[in-house]
Amino acid sequence: MSMSTSGFQPHHSFQADDQALLPIAAKVQARERLSFEDGVALYRSGDILAIGWLANLVRERMHGNTAYFNVNRHINPTNVCVASCRLCAFGRKKGEAGTYTMALEEAWETAASGYTEAVTEFHIVGGLHPDLPFEYFMDLVRGLKVRFPKVHVKAFTMVEVAFLAKRGKMTIAETLEQMKAAGVDSMPGGGAEIFADRVRHIICDHKIDGGEWLETARMAHKMGLRSNATMLYGHVENDEDRVDHMIRLREVQDDTGGFQTFIPLAFHPENTMLGHIPKTTGMTDIKQIAIGRLMLDNFPHIKSYWQMVSPKMAQIALRFGADDVDGTVIEEKIYHDAGAVTPQGMRRADLVRLITEAGREPFERDTMYRAVTRSEDSFTVAV
Ligand code: V47
């Protein structure tokens, strides 16, 4: 029987150079959950083709040949931040040179600027500003909803929610309730970093701890807000810390089902207090995507964020476990302050080409992974 040379092909048999992967492969093929030890064994293996094959098997079981992207815009209302995380090149202390805080009008203008294609999502994150009142953030969201009623607002990380709650003397639940009422539709996955205390003390000791991040996510999910989850790798963490991070996410997901996407973020050292740490390499980046897909069996999506790992690496990742490349972004600040050399945004057509040339079928999604159809300057979401 002849097989077509293009398009989607069924799988053949598994081959590994590293025999330590065989029991893991058996589990993946039997759809069994991988253990902590399995996760560590995957990191310790250099057999990237075998690991990638397994991750791709899972990815294609879940999503076939589809690769998701969206047309989104980032808005970072302020870079003033009370935390001084060693991992971060974006935040500045109040009064320092280079700080900015957008007036509400400015934030709404920013939302409308810099693109010709209608965006379907605003991704809003920023510094932990010591003085901006909770109502500033709620007015920001309400104003966006008035001006762009069709656009999904994915706003405020677990870290920002915990900070705003403390500042406003509210519980996490009350804070989330008010965010929802103002028009927040879902939450991004930032601030998770690495949950292990030892690492958190070094890279971000002013942030809520790992347990608090997870409990805030759990609460958000229980209140009907979906979220993403990130993991920052390539600094002082070890393999065990990474596996621990993913298993803790997997446990919350078993309980809530509220996580949509796992996004591993490669650490960019430039202009941070950890500037001596070398940048991640291609092998680390691609392995991280594949192991994420294999460990997080209950996460629907794995995103290779092109801004973080470069468009070229994101494209390859689509065959190593990732099913999503994020979106147009338009104006990225956080990694560009940390020395990223990628463009600050991409056009829709560039993302489509990147996906098509990986042999995948581009699928424009909204934040909830529903199909988007568009004309020149407007869009419709399938319900
Ligand atoms: O939490 C900060 C990271 C995150 C650096 O949910 C750095 O769809 C590398 O979470 N080098 C914020 N990383 C970004 C984020 C995100 C991005 C894209 C999509 C989604 C989503 C979420 O950026 C922070 C931190 O982990 N970060 N500084 C740095 N120097």
Instruction: State the CATH class.
Output: Alpha Beta
Q: Strand order within the widest sheet?
A: 5-6-7-8
Strand content: 5-15%
What is the succession of H and E elements? HHHEEHEHEHHEHHEHEHEHHEHEEE
Number of beta strands: 12
List bound small molecules. ligand V47
Q: What is the structural class?
A: alpha/beta
The CATH topology is given as: TIM Barrel
Kindly report how far apart the N and C termini lie: 40 Å
Radius of gyration: 20 Å
What characteristic shape results from the CA principal axes? globular
Describe this structure in words.
This protein is an alpha/beta fold. It has one domain: Aldolase class I (TIM Barrel, Alpha-Beta Barrel). Helix content is 39%, strand content 13%. It has helices at residues 22-29, 36-44, 48-63, 104-112, 134-147, 158-167, 172-182, 197-203, 210-222, 239-256, 282-295, 306-309, 311-317, 348-357; strands at 66-70, 72-75, 121-124, 152-155, 186-187, 226-233, 259-266, 301-302, 324-327, 361-364, 372-374, 379-381. The strands form 4 sheets. The chain has a 4-stranded parallel beta sheet. Strands 9-1-10 form a 3-stranded parallel beta sheet, with helices on one face. The two termini are 40 Å apart. The model is unreliable at 1-6 (pLDDT under 50). The structure holds ligand V47. Ligand V47 binds next to strand 6 and strand 7.
